[in-house]
Amino acid sequence: MAVWAQKRDSETNEKLIKRWKRQVNNARIMQKIRDERYQKGDPTKRVVRIAAIKRSHFQEKRRKEQFYA
Length: 69
Hints:
The chain is an all-alpha fold. The chain has helices at residues 13-27, 29-35, 45-68. The mean pLDDT is 90.
């Protein structure tokens, strides 16, 4: 779950930070940390359904990137 960003040739610090933030957001690391901060009860049927829709969306996105990147 680690995200590494090394400075490229003639890249400014601002660009490096922006690129790192984009990688962190795409990996959904901060969302996972925030979700685990407090104990939660069992999810409702609605929450489970919405999570499944999001998961399938990201799976499809990753599948497309794998073959077309």
